[in-house]
Amino acid sequence: MATPAIHPSTLTRRGLLTATAGGLLLSGCGRNDQGAPGTSGSRAQDSREIVVGASLELSGPGAALGVLQERALRITADELNVEGVQVGNMRRKIRVVLRDNASDPRTAARQARELALKDNVHALIGGTLAETSLGIIAQAQEIRIPFISLAYGDGIVLPLAERTYVYKVTPDSQDVAARLVQLLVTREHRRVVLVAGHGLHGDAGVAAMKRATEAAGVDLARVVRLPRTGDNFRPVLRELADRGPKAVVVWTHPPDTGEAARALRIVGYRGPLYFDPAAVNEDTLQERNLSSVEGAYAIHPISLGGSTLTNTTNAALARRDFVFRYIQLYGGFSGFAPYASDALTLVTDAARASGTVDHGRIRAFLRTQVSEGMAGAYTFSPSRHSGLERGSLGVYQVSHGEWTRVS
Hints:
- Helices cover 37% and strands 18% of the residues.
- By secondary structure, it is an alpha/beta fold.
- It has a seven-stranded mixed beta sheet with strand order 8-7-9-10-11-14-15, sandwiched between helices.
- The protein is globular, with a radius of gyration of 21 Å.
- Belongs to the leucine-binding protein family.
């Protein structure tokens, strides 16, 4: 795993305080919704808190994404709680009520409703899978509570008329596809095959890559759709390998990314691999996948390699503090974009700017935020609820088992 060289003496005062917080300031968290120890159940709302509900994939096919976002939430809640958040004339602590949706859209929808109506949260975060995010969206819109999705897929915030309370912190598929195709052209690969995952994330990739390749005059020779997570990928990929493609784009999320790469190598494909941002995950660089993904390229936000000791902007210092805390708690940093961290910060910034925790006011200030987050720069507007800027994307390559920035 890529681990930036960081010494504790380089951290800000707030970062050092956070590093000693021990995770105790994030309450109401658990991996179930039966009120077990570590969960808040239907605890009465404290007027001195900002309460955020989070429905994440801590188990099931989306766990490779959801668990990392849980970690980001914990670190950022502790960071914010060092001083609290000034909302009007009151400094409030952050409380996150966490639920495991088990990667099931119906469970995510039920949890969103319970979090809003029983736990009285001020905003919702979650859904690292597009399917679970869509389950939450229906409830957020009906109840009129702000929701920030952590999933990939452009349809999450569109059409705007039906997504007035919904925002997204992941990159737009069209921006990712444009950067991927630009990289393919630079490397003189003008004929490419797309391997897209099962589900809505794969659907978005297919649509975006078709538009981007057509615009750039690149031949999208074939689109192959993977079966569901856990199924055997080799049969659908064997015929592809037999045709000898010069380049393959794999657009899916872990654990399918690593599984698809391994299957491609097993059936005989030896050419270059290109990944979408969801591939940047601890699972992809697991030992079982390393020989298959070595040399692969990925488009990903700047959080993957943007923290250096010489970069002293506030955003860079915040990223460095985050990485140090992550390494301290979990023993290594995978470089994934900490979308949940940005989502929680966006909610608290909206509450601070509005001077209230009212749902409508938080929503109104979310849609005008311009900020620099952990993943990159965000610009939201009434006509743009997907705020991560295209310029926040970089090109990375797996080199000796680590992600290295190349552009």
